[in-house]
Design goal:
The chain is α+β, with helices and mostly antiparallel strands. It is 30% helix and 30% strand. It contains six helices and nine strands; from the N terminus they run ββαβααβαβαββββα. The chain starts with 11 loop residues before the first strand and ends with a helix.
Length: 168
């Protein structure tokens, strides 16, 4: 499992863009994790699935609401990563009104989740291999803080916890 001090794994996530800009076309666009995190402070949080109850009611809204405070604490970007495809993440972004606040990044084949060692097997519940629920503060591609939830819990990966860590 990834630890504080480790570099984020080499992976490509996908992001659905609704408008063209900065070299991004409309639709799914690749996001190279190493390039996208270089020289930045990222508040990254991951969760088991888009449109799921805790994720939609608490996890994403907390980060959307805390965006300005996280930015004031030195966070350049907020990333939400989930084992869903880019189209689902794009629809969820519209539903959660994340535009300009949280980048909704798809880990469709769970490559990033596997590389971090933070997977959650929900096969018995019909959801397959997913990401565990966690948050991490990433500085220039390295993990500065890591908060992994116990199964079925939502206690340490919330925006308030990561904000306190970003404020140092």
């Amino acid at each position: 499992m990834i630890q504080v001090g480790d570099t984020l794994p080499s992976a490509t996530l996908m992001e659905y863009s609704e408008v063209e800009g900065e070299g991004c076309s409309i639709g799914p666009n690749p996001v190279d994790v190493a390039k996208a995190s270089a020289g930045k402070t990222i508040a990254l949080f991951a969760l088991p699935g888009a449109f799921t109850p805790t994720c939609s009611a608490k996890h994403v809204p907390g980060y959307v609401e805390s965006q300005a405070a996280l930015q004031a604490a030195g966070v350049d970007e907020i990333w939400c990563v989930s084992v869903n495809d880019a189209f689902v993440m794009g629809a969820w972004a519209r539903d959660q009104k994340t535009a300009g606040k949280v980048r909704m990044l798809a880990d469709g084949s769970a490559d990033f989740a596997k590389a971090t060692g933070l997977t959650l097997d929900l096969t018995a519940r019909g959801m397959g291999l997913r990401s565990n629920r966690y948050s991490m503060l990433v500085k220039d591609g390295k993990v500065a803080a890591l908060n992994v939830e116990a199964p079925g819990k939502f206690e340490v990966s919330d925006a308030a916890t990561l904000l306190k860590q970003a404020q140092g």
